[in-house]
Amino acid sequence: MAKQSPQRVAIIGAGWAGCAAAVMLCQADHRVTLYEAAKTPGGRARRVRLHNRNLDNGQHILLGAYRQILKLMQQVGIPQDQAFVRLPLQMVYPDPQADMALIAAHLPAPLHLLAGLWQATGLQRADKLALIRFSSAARWMGWQLYQDCSVTELLARFGQTDRLCQLMWYPLCLAALNTRPEQASAQVFLHVLRDSLGARRSASDMLLPRMDLSALFPEQAIRFLRQRGAEVHCQQPVRQLKRGHERSWSVQTADTQTDGFDAVIVATEARNAQRLIVRTQLETTPLPVFADEAITTCYLQYDAAFQLPRAMYALKEDASRQYWGQYVFDRGQLHPDQAGLLAVVVSAPDLNITHDHAGLAAAIAHQLACELRLPVLAQPLWHQVITEKKATFRCTPGLQRPDNLTTISGLLLAGDYTRGDYPATLEGAVRSGQRAAQLIITGQASF
Question: Which residues, at least 6 apart from 333, have a Cβ–Cβ distance to it below 8 Å?
Fold first, then answer.
């Protein structure tokens, strides 16, 4: 469709979806006003200041398959080689012989995975054959299911061994969907595998951020927007949206009301979006009620001279032994000022264990000491536990997610919960923001 004449657009929320939409609209010469309730941009993936350091509210891994994020970062002036440590796809446990060590080779796809599987330790012949069988079948199916089911059911259907499930598929599912495999959508999991394992070699690379999550994109995006004349209002929560004469929109904060917007993109989490839509007093279809999943990150500080042999390891979650950690990252190998700091991730945690921060940190420190066979890890100098209780939606089979367009002319949604191939990831948020922006650019947002 033809490009629209310049529109005046309000965007509510300076998370990754909102910033992506704002950048795309500015590049298309639309006039953008961005509102953010918090002081720090980034939404549910942002910087926090703790122990005189810039940390994150959750440790993240990005993938080489995240094309839109990587393209946007380049557009706003963030070089990838400075932003990330790029590692080949890997699943390496502290004891690679007893557990598993699989590292993709530097070869064209799919040889990179076949060679990595051939050289992998800790897997039996039956495990390797099962993995090859699954990958081949998924490619043959076009990574598409006739009817969605759980990840656990999908893996059983394709004869994946218990060992392979426990050491590879289940941890990958948790990392990608933040949903337990017995509840997680197999179709969405296949979408992630299609764009990583099933694509070119570099698409499967793991990207570990060298910057805090706000600096990685949102803050630079805001600088980019301001340089192009956009208005950015931080610490300005939006209280109400109103549609006035000739279908123009007004945005009301605690201090001001600004009129004359041609379109509004609500780029907040789903509950806040629903609140704003209801307050318009215009008829629309209610948003689905999504179940929340948390992510817990446990920071453990050791002597600055301490360093893990690798930048990251997979860990063996085992509730019977109170082993809650699933991955550990050596932040000192990513950030020069964070020597001796480890970040342990617990995706989709049982919230009963996250209330006692001291107890959880002690259990995770004990787990590290045992799995890495380093008794010193049982006694960190300090710890900090951060639980983002509404980090993602629970990505279940057949979940109906809303479109970017609402039934109200000129009002759009953006966020990782909207309809798309990806689960609640940064890439999913960015793609949603860009889809909403594109609808305005092509004139499809007003009807």
Answer: 85, 307, 308, 311
